[in-house]
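Dear colleague,

Thank you for sharing your sequence with our group. We've completed the structure prediction you requested, and as agreed, I am returning the results in plain text so they can be pasted directly into your records. Please verify that the sequence below matches your submission; if there's any discrepancy, let me know and we will rerun it promptly.
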Amino acid sequence: MAISISLTVNGTPVTAEVEPHSLLVQFLRDPLRLTGTHIGCDTAQCGACTVHLNGRAIKSCNMLAVQAEGASITTIEGLAANGSLHPMQEAFRNCHGLQCGFCTPGMVMSAIALVQTQPDASADDVRRQLDGNLCRCTGYHNIVKAVLEGAAGMKAASSNASADAAASATVTA
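Please find the predicted structure tokens below.
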């Protein structure tokens, strides 16, 4: 028997019927067609399914869709704005922090969550945070480099947004 859920996904309100046993990752990929959230292990060990739930990184294969009732979900598809990649996505591209790309969405989502809570994270902090995200291709060196560059990009973007807001407030005052 299907259960109705309502939540926000990438800024858009969504109401849908889901089976009680449906995982959040299945809900995002199948009816919503947000296939950037990957299914890797189904046991919350690889991190390929990482999304943000109310601003916190979670592994969506480890949560039922009905548990997301009323929540705000951000997937990899929800990061780019106005045709521009998120600074972390840009850094992964610039630093070659991906090869096959399968783990990349989960890595990016975990990295953003780290930087949001620890803007001045060290390389060791990045390695600890990404401990639950597996990559079988890159050896992690370029991933760590990308996260550090992405953190700098996020900090710069935040500073620019603050400066723009201050300038706008000055003009309207």
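Summary note from our side: The longest helix spans residues 141-172.

Kind regards,
the structure core
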